[in-house]
Structures are given as C-alpha cells and as structure tokens.
Design brief:
The chain is of the alpha/beta class and 282 residues long. It has one domain: TIM Barrel. It is built from nine helices and eight strands. An eight-stranded parallel β-barrel has the order 1-2-3-4-5-6-7-8, surrounded by five helices. The protein starts with 15 loop residues before the first strand and ends with a helix.
C-alpha cells in the first residue's frame, strides 16, 4: 500500500467513537460508559453482548441517561446460515429486535454482516443469495425504524463462519440496488487487503455510513480477537482514511479492536492509549 501523499488534519477527540468491543466482552456496560466519559469520549458503539443482566432496556437507559451518541449497534448476522423456514423466521425476528434496540438508543446504523455458512452447507453462492434476500426483506422495517443498515464485508478468513458478503464492491452494489436505508461500512482491518479498495471507496461517495479502524498484526494469532492497536501493524490507516474522507465522509471514526491482549488492561490504561494512537497513527 502506497504512502499517503497529502497531509491529513489531526483527528480530534470528538471524532472518536469507541466501539465497546475494544474494551472487552466481560466488563459491566455502565463501567465502560463511565470510563469513556471520564476520558472525554462522548460517542460509543455497543454490541448486543454488552447488555449484561439488565438486558436491552437497561443498556438503552444507561446510554441515554448519560447523553451519549451512538454510531452503530452490532450486529445482524443470522441470514447466511438460515437454510430452513424456522431459522429464516428467527433471523427476521432477531433483525427486527436489533433495529428496535438501535432506534431506542439513538444509533444511526446497525452493522449488517449477514452471517456465514450453515453447519451442513458448502455453497457460498447460496449463502450470499440468502444474505441479499434477507437484507431486502428486513429493509422496509429498517426504514420505518429510521435506522440505516451498514453493510460490512468481513475479511476472507471470516467468510465461512461470520460474514459472507465478501468485498466492499458487493456491499456497494447491494446498497446502490436497494437504495434508501442501506450504506457501506469501511473497516481497515477487514478490507485493507482488497486490491480494488481505493477505487471502490472513491465510488462510494454518499454511501459510506461508517468507518472503523484497527491494525493487522503479523503474524495474526487468532481469527477474531487478535486485532492490533493502530500503529502496531502493517495497515496504512492514514491512506485509507484519506480515501474515505475524499468522499465527503465527516462522521465519527470508530476504533474497533477485538483483542484478548488489550482488553486485559484497566480501562484507565487502555482508553488513553487508544486516544493517543487514534490521534497519532490514524
């Protein structure tokens, strides 16, 4: 990946959205929210797994009581493996629940990764077709909820079990085809490898509804939870940021670092480090 030829403006703290997966999966939600506020972060992106014992309503109340902004709620991922009528209905019901929760907490988008292959399936074409059909079927509900479906292609190593959309071009084609209520999510970790990334991003003007950053470590030790802190890996994050910003994107940038190593730090160690790297390595 070539070096960014143009200087970028330094990122400000109010441009950072803390994807709460960066702080781990086991901490109480309110503890994470309070730590973000303590360090000046006012925008977050929760996962449903962060709800804890209080459930969705408790999480929604905790976020709203603190006046926090929400970029996205993660995630919608059951359509790919839904190869029976019962599983399809479950995917639709779950999708509607996620959209209702996102709307209630004020999230602009729901991250849509689609899902992977069913346990007994081997046809990536069938899976991608189901994801596309599920997207089309859930879209009217998303529009009525006022929440945009952010289509996120995952890294190829995640296609089989988590998200089979495949590439940013596929996501963009679907967003253009389906129109209002859809957009694409650019993620440096998942998409840095794509030879067409610059061209596709530049074709995505007006369609980018989220931008996530983390780094790729060599070697990678875990297929899900070994993302690198920005600046520790091989991704030219400022270059990708320049492409995204050239489309007019001005919304917050999410830090999404799935990492068992980093999440072991205390919040008052981890969050200042994330802020430092956000401002120095992105």
């Amino acid at each position: 990946m070539s070096t960014n030829p143009l200087p970028l403006a330094s990122l400000k703290l109010d441009q950072l959205s803390m994807n709460l997966i960066s702080l781990g999966t086991e901490r109480p939600l309110e503890e994470m929210l309070e730590a973000c506020i303590r360090h000046g972060i006012r925008t977050v992106a929760p996962w449903q797994l962060h709800y804890g014992e209080s459930g969705a309503r408790g999480a929604i109340n905790a976020i709203r009581a603190r006046g926090l902004n929400v970029t996205t709620l993660c995630r919608m991922s059951l359509f790919g493996p839904a190869d029976s009528k019962m599983m399809w209905q479950q995917a639709l019901d779950e999708g509607k629940r996620v959209l209702d929760e996102a709307a209630a907490m004020g999230a602009k988008t729901v991250t849509f990764i689609g899902g992977g292959l069913p346990v007994s399936g081997k046809s990536i074409l069938d899976v991608r077709s189901r994801i596309r059909d599920g997207l089309s079927e859930i879209l009217p509900y998303a529009r009525s909820a006022g929440v945009v479906l952010a289509l996120e292609p995952l890294h190829p190593m995640c296609v089989a079990d988590r998200g089979a959309i495949g590439t940013l071009q596929v996501a963009l084609d679907w967003a253009h085809e389906l129109g209002e209520g859809t957009g694409v999510l650019v993620d440096t970790y998942n998409q840095w490898w794509d030879p067409a990334l610059e061209q596709v991003i530049k074709k995505s003007e007006g369609r980018i509804v989220g931008f996530q950053v983390s780094d790729w470590l060599v070697p990678t030790q875990d297929l899900a939870f070994d993302r690198g802190m920005m600046g520790d890996g091989i991704i030219d994050i400022p270059l990708i940021r320049s492409w995204v910003e050239s489309t007019g994107y001005q919304d917050p940038i999410e830090v999404e670092i799935l990492s068992h190593r980093w999440s072991k730090l205390s919040l008052d160690e981890l969050i200042p480090l994330i802020i430092l790297r956000f401002q120095s390595a992105c």
